[in-house]
């Protein structure tokens, strides 16, 4: 019975070790993809960083319309934000896939461990009741390993859930910022068209001012109106530039938060790798102790068999001597 339990324990440990190697080999590509995404993250182009519409608008609200960022610069900035958002979504999907794979691996290990404990429950209970401390220690270590694995899995799920929520919020903020940038671009285009139209009107009025006095008076009136409208447009443009500066500051803050999230994810990956190594060490210690206990039991059985054979030979000599003594006594009488 004890040999059967030992054989089952050794077989279970070998099976778990084989599954761990297989799962590590399968999860290596996913971890490699995540590291590639972090290491190969796209950098902002030089012209985008140096000629960003946010940088231009933040240099001062006193500049004229010629300092308004071009549509090409806005398109480049928008394209960079889209690439950053896609990269974050890719990392999130890869992390979710790794989490699902770890969950499947954990459930499989838990089921096999429960089946092994359920199959060995009666024998282990009877062995523990006999008062053998080594077997009791083996069972306690098995239970402790299972509890530690459960705690590590729960901690990883909680950290991963918090990370996913933060990534989702950041993606939503980046999307809102892109919408604001698009609105700002459309508004600037409208203002440019309006000012261009005003310039054309002023040129046309200036050319027709030499015809008649009435037309001159009308021209003065329309010029005054255009000046007022241009002043209002200039004020609106300054306000839009201020909003653009605020958006640039918000974008910088979001990028800092995104970098912090990347660092947090890297730390979680390191913690998972360290916990896996510790679990492997505990499994090796458990295997070594099982082998030592099996070796001691085999030595004890050999000693017991040897002593039993000696006692049997001694008893056989006593019986033979007694028989000879009885025969000698009968002969003497």
Descriptive account of the structure:
The chain is an all-alpha fold and 333 residues long. The protein has one domain. Helix content is 91%, strand content 0%. Helix 4 packs antiparallel against helix 5 and helix 5 runs antiparallel to helix 6. The radius of gyration is 42 Å and the shape is rod-shaped. The two termini are 55 Å apart.
Overall number of structural domains: 1
**Helix and strand pattern:** HHHHHH
First and last CA, distance: 55 Å
Specify the overall morphology: rod-shaped
* Number of strand elements: 0
**Number of distinct helices:** 6
Main structural class: mainly alpha
Rg for CA atoms: 42 Å
Percent of residues in beta strands: under 5%
* Helical coverage, percent range: over 70%
Low-confidence segments, given as residue ranges, are 1-6, 41-67, 122-131
Average pLDDT rating: 74
Report on the biggest sheet.
Answer: none
InterPro entries: Rootletin-like_CC (IPR055167)
Keywords: Coiled coil
Organism: Rotaria socialis
Region (Disordered): 49-70
Summary, kept brief:
Residues 92-201, 251-292 form a coiled coil. The chain has 333 residues and is mainly alpha-helical. It has helices spanning 2-39, 46-50, 53-58, 71-129, 133-208, 213-332.
């Amino acid at each position: 019975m004890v040999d059967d339990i030992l054989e089952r324990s050794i077989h279970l440990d070998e099976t778990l070790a084989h599954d761990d190697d297989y799962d590590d080999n399968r999860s290596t590509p996913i971890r490699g993809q995540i590291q590639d995404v972090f290491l190969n993250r796209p950098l902002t182009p030089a012209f985008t960083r140096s000629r960003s519409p946010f940088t231009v608008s933040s240099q001062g609200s006193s500049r004229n319309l010629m300092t308004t960022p071009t549509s090409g610069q806005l398109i480049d900035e928008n394209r960079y934000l889209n690439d950053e958002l896609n990269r974050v979504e890719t990392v999130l999907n890869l992390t979710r896939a790794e989490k699902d794979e770890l969950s499947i691996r954990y459930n499989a290990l838990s089921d096999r461990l429960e089946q092994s404990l359920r199959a060995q429950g009666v024998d282990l209970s009877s062995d523990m009741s006999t008062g053998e401390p080594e077997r009791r220690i083996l069972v306690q270590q098995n239970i402790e390993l299972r509890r530690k694995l459960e705690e590590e899995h729960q901690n990883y799920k909680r950290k991963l859930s918090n990370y996913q929520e933060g990534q989702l919020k950041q993606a939503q903020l980046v999307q809102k910022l892109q919408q604001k940038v698009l609105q700002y671009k459309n508004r600037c285009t409208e203002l440019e068209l309006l000012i261009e139209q005003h310039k054309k009107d002023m040129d046309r009025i200036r050319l027709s001012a030499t015809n008649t006095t009435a037309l001159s008076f009308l021209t003065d009136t329309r010029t005054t109106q255009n000046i007022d409208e241009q002043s209002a447009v200039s004020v609106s443009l300054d306000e839009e530039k201020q909003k653009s500066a605020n958006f640039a500051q918000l974008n910088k803050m979001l990028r800092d938060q995104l970098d912090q999230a990347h660092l947090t994810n890297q730390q979680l990956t390191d913690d998972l790798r360290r916990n896996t190594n510790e679990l492997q060490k505990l499994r090796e210690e458990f295997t070594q102790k099982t082998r030592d206990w099996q070796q001691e039991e085999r030595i004890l059985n050999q000693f017991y068999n040897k002593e039993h054979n000696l006692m049997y030979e001694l008893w056989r000599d006593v019986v033979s001597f007694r028989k000879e003594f009885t025969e000698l006594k009968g002969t003497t009488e």
